[in-house]
């Protein structure tokens, strides 16, 4: 995590042993807070991200790629 250039949050000590999804959530929260974006815009963007990942998983796409899997 923390691969965003110039992004070096001071993570709580226990975070190092946290599950990957918790680390990702903390990184995302800190990144969004640093950008000072309106709450409504953040929520709208997160809805798009969640829907995008759900749709990729439905069609068997790779959740780490923006390219969906080929239709069978």
TrEMBL record:
Entry-linked InterPro entries: DUF2496_YbaM-rel
Domain of life where this protein originates: Bacteria
Protein name (record): DUF2496 domain-containing protein
Protein's organism: Arsukibacterium ikkense
Origin organism lineage: Bacteria, Pseudomonadati, Pseudomonadota, Gammaproteobacteria, Chromatiales
